[in-house]
């Protein structure tokens, strides 16, 4: 029997998070003319931290790996499949009792943001250069993780 892991939890740091057993997202990146470009989701205004840009992601299922959860979420939210992506390293943001894992991935084919199928959790999607992230409102969790992700993106 499937038990939903959707729901709010409070971590050891006192923050409220979605996903009773943690969450994961996929950070798709490619080489651009001015450095790395990131495929980011513009979160629907009704969602937690709506109107911000971040990785497609969400609550993990019980027993699900972060990699599987991140791939499932990017397929649900943007229509990308495991055949479209090559998984790379991961970065864990551990809050004590709750964590968010960002799984990096490179596209195995040309991916144009305008060709992606968005679900109701996204108001848009775009390739944004790493150096241009200051020009858009970022999801606070994603923004706080950038110092860890930066080294993985430029390696």
TrEMBL record:
<dbReference type="InterPro" id="IPR015797">
    <property type="entry name" value="NUDIX_hydrolase-like_dom_sf"/>
</dbReference>
<dbReference type="InterPro" id="IPR000086">
    <property type="entry name" value="NUDIX_hydrolase_dom"/>
</dbReference>
<comment type="similarity">
    <text>Belongs to the Nudix hydrolase family.</text>
</comment>
<dbReference type="GO" id="GO:0016787">
    <property type="term" value="F:hydrolase activity"/>
</dbReference>
<dbReference type="InterPro" id="IPR020476">
    <property type="entry name" value="Nudix_hydrolase"/>
</dbReference>
<protein>
    <submittedName>
        <fullName>ADP-ribose pyrophosphatase YjhB, NUDIX family</fullName>
    </submittedName>
</protein>
<dbReference type="Pfam" id="PF00293">
    <property type="entry name" value="NUDIX"/>
</dbReference>
<dbReference type="InterPro" id="IPR020084">
    <property type="entry name" value="NUDIX_hydrolase_CS"/>
</dbReference>
<feature type="domain" description="Nudix hydrolase">
    <location>
        <begin position="18"/>
        <end position="151"/>
    </location>
</feature>
<keyword id="KW-0378">Hydrolase</keyword>
